[in-house]
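Module 6 notes. Inverse folding takes a fixed backbone as the condition and produces residue identities as the prediction. Think of it as a translation problem where the source language is geometry and the target language is the twenty amino acids. Below is one complete input and output pair. Work through it position by position during the lab.
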């Protein structure tokens, strides 16, 4: 088990007891203990007979209407508040028996009548089952369809109620929650809880929610494993593991915000919450690396991102133990982390939108703390962070959070440069060099926040002007890239008529379109053929002029970039 976790093949399993929520009396608990004892005994005839008598009593108690009502009420509360919005929301309820499984199913639909596609019963069908049961259980093909849906992360089927089926050999990686209402022990118990230990995205671990006191049986089963396993995973109780880790990381995040008051996020209106998020990001971006004795690669914001991620992961397991105010505070730390991650990620060419950030933070708050309100970082949630929007650039220039303004501008320019790297050789090299020079002077202390913002704003405006240059010349974006390559030496425009350059640009683009080949990326002969074609065309226009032979290299590079992207 330990090796599998360390190798990344599985995730650890954690345990949460909810037995007390059912208000089970001492007699019932004694019967459950007797069931565990019977399972641990040899299957002698006298043991089997005794077990049958006691199990009959246990079935009657665990299946009582009042007990089922308490069970389902607590499962629904726990699932909807703490688990439904985790990963894909998949959960499994392990019922004591087939009749009890159906009672749980009916009670859930009684309380949540619109969940007909969200919850299903998966169990074997008996020859003497009433017709009502048969309609719910379905035939073999129906069960196979349920299996397909439960494995589909986008399917509306989220909760499977099982008895024995699906407890071995059935893997759904995103499944992170198992509600146990059935005594199990030994190998059967370990097989069952392994349903929630599969690796999936940033899944921290699987959570087993216990309603019948399996803790002792779990520890006994663990004793069959090595000493290292018992040391590492012998105590999977979230109260002593995940919750303790959560409190530790909560203090770390609080310490990193020492000197910044974010209390208004907990009590203020939407606008105040939004300001505290952006203010928190600005605060961390402005923290000195040297003051924290950290190497440059471990900048304060990067350390914070790691610690806040650990806070989020531990909360995903123990949220039911955390009070609402503290969950709200953790949601603030996660909102700041979300913005920092988005700002820190490399240029992807994808537009950064306000709606994207709003949606993530709103979902976080709604799911983590069940807040009825939402946060809008800006009033117009559909607005894009766009370098080509003059109004937006003016808003950035007026931001009080100067550190955040620098990061947003740097991010947007980097994304646009990344886009140019796939389409336009000249623009990518030109603007990349200008941005790097500005940021180098800023990091070396030669430019203040205000000065670097002005330089980046000027660069953004230059990029916006370059973006519209093709339209003014009547060229498409790909024709514009060839035009930029042809006219990179400034003197070119003085040595050729404007109409000549436009005609050469269009003829060059058209020739490349007509001579694309599927062998382009595999055969050097195809690339050589393209280069000969380009040089013949340039020669026709007597390009380049004498003394500017290097200009051909830029044109060839642009042609190769275009062909690589199009083939």
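Target side of the pair, the amino acids:
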């Amino acid at each position: 088990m330990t090796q599998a976790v360390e190798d990344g093949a599985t995730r650890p399993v954690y345990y949460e007891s909810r037995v007390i929520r059912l208000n089970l009396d001492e007699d019932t608990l004694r019967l459950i203990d007797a069931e565990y004892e019977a399972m641990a005994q040899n299957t002698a005839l006298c043991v089997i007979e005794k077990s049958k008598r006691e199990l009959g009593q246990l079935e009657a108690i665990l299946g009582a209407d009042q007990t089922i009502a308490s069970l389902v009420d607590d499962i629904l509360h726990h699932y909807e508040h703490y688990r439904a919005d985790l990963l894909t929301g998949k959960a499994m309820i392990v019922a004591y028996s087939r009749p009890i499984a159906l009672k749980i199913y009916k009670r859930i639909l009684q309380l949540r009548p619109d969940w007909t596609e969200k919850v299903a019963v998966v169990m074997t069908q008996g020859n003497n089952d009433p017709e009502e049961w048969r309609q719910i259980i379905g035939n073999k093909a129906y069960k196979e369809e349920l299996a397909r849906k439960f494995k589909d992360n986008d399917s509306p089927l989220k909760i499977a109620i099982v008895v024995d089926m699906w407890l071995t050999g059935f893997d759904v990686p995103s499944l992170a929650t198992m509600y146990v209402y059935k005594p199990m022990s030994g190998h059967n118990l370990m097989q069952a809880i392994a349903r929630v230990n599969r690796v999936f995205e940033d899944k921290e671990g699987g959570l087993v929610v216990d309603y019948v006191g399996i803790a002792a049986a779990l520890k006994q089963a663990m004793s069959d494993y090595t000493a290292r396993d018992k040391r590492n995973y012998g105590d999977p109780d979230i109260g002593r593991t995940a919750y303790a880790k959560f409190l530790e990381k909560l203090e770390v995040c609080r310490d990193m915000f020492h000197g910044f008051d974010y209390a208004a996020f907990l009590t203020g209106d939407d606008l105040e919450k939004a300001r505290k998020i952006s203010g928190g990001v600005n605060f961390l971006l402005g923290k000195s690396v040297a003051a924290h004795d950290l190497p440059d690669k471990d900048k304060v914001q990067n350390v914070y991102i790691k610690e806040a991620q650990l806070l989020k992961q531990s909360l995903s397991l123990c949220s039911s133990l955390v009070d609402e105010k503290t969950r709200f505070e953790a949601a603030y730390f996660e909102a700041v982390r979300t913005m920092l991650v988005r700002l820190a990620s490399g240029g992807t060419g994808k537009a950064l939108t306000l709606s994207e950030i709003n949606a993530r933070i709103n979902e976080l708050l709604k799911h983590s703390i069940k807040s009825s309100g939402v946060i809008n970082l800006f009033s117009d949630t559909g607005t894009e962070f766009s370098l080509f929007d003059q109004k937006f650039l003016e808003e950035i220039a007026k931001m009080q959070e100067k550190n955040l303004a620098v990061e947003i501008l740097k991010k947007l320019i980097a994304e646009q440069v990344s886009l140019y790297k796939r389409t336009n050789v000249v623009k990518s090299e030109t603007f990349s060099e200008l941005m790097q020079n500005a940021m180098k002077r800023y990091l070396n202390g030669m430019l203040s926040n205000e000065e670097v913002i002005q330089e980046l704003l000027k660069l953004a405006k230059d990029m916006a002007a370059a973006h519209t240059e093709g339209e003014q010349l009547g060229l498409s974006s790909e024709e514009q890239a060839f035009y930029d390559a042809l006219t990179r030496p400034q003197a070119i425009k003085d040595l050729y008529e404007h109409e000549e350059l436009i005609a050469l640009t269009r003829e060059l683009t058209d020739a490349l379109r007509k001579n694309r080949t599927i062998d382009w990326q595999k055969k050097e002969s195809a690339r050589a053929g393209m280069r000969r074609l380009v040089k013949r065309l340039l020669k026709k226009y007597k390009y380049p002029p004498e003394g500017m032979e290097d200009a051909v290299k830029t044109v060839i590079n642009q042609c190769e970039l275009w062909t690589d992207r199009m083939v």
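Reference fact for the lab report: The chain has 25 helices and eight strands.
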